[in-house]
Amino acid sequence: MDIASVASLTVSLFFILNPFASLPLFMSVTKGLDERVRDSYANKAVLVAAVLLLVFVFVGSDLMGLFGVTMDSFRVAGGIVLLMMAIELVFGLKLAKLDDEDGAAWAIIASPILTGPGMITAAVLFANQYGMDTVIAASILALFLTWCILRQSDRILHLVGEQAIGMVTKVIGLLIAAMAIENVFAGSLGWFEAHTTAMTLLISIL
């Protein structure tokens, strides 16, 4: 396992998890609760997010094979999903809707706030690119950092303020957009190369 890859991937996954963007929502759904209950919500949210993430790390590729989806095609589709996620962060838009607004608050934070389509897409792509061991190690570190931030949400918001968190979120959105474009380009190039090779072989046979 390459330590540099783990460190790089931890940063990428942390950006995609983006716990700073979920801080205001987390504070709103835990408003009026005592610290023990708020910590319990943070524990449950990160635990469920971790389970969802690891499930897709292990079975994501098998699901793709089941539906006949190539990694190049998934990379393009995943890049588009990540780009939409980045647009939400940069422009403050809401392209997705929370269907379970009356559900448990910690469950809403876990998914789709932390482990949404963008995170699931990244997990599958990174597992294919770096290997499961590296992704699992990086996921644990990224989720641990996220857990620490949610546990200290009240102090962080009072210390830096919502405006500063909003600025950080926009910068993170730009970085995710760049990652998304890279995935779209890499997937498109791989798809065209694979189909060009197949067409060349077919022509040579004929």
Description:
There is one protein chain. The chain is an all-alpha fold and 206 residues long. It has helices at residues 3-17, 19-29, 35-66, 71-91, 105-114, 117-130, 132-151, 153-205. The protein is 85% helix and 0% strand. It starts with a helix and ends with a helix.
How do the helices and strands line up, and which of them pair or pack?
Elements: H1 3-17, H2 19-29, H3 35-66, H4 71-91, H5 105-114, H6 117-130, H7 132-151, H8 153-205
Top keywords for this entry?
single chain, 206 residues, mainly alpha, 8 helices, 85% helix, elongated
Condensed summary:
With 206 residues, the protein is mainly α. The protein contains eight helices and no strands.
Count the strands?
Answer: 0
**Percent helix range:** over 70%
Count of runs of 4 or more consecutive helical residues: 8
Strand content: under 5%
Shape: elongated
- Give start-end ranges of low-pLDDT stretches: none
Mean pLDDT: 81
Q: What quaternary form is this? A: single chain
SSE order in H/E notation? HHHHHHHH
Biggest beta sheet summary: none
**Helix/strand/pairing category:** mainly alpha
Our Rg estimate from Cα atoms comes to 19 Å
Span between termini: 46 Å
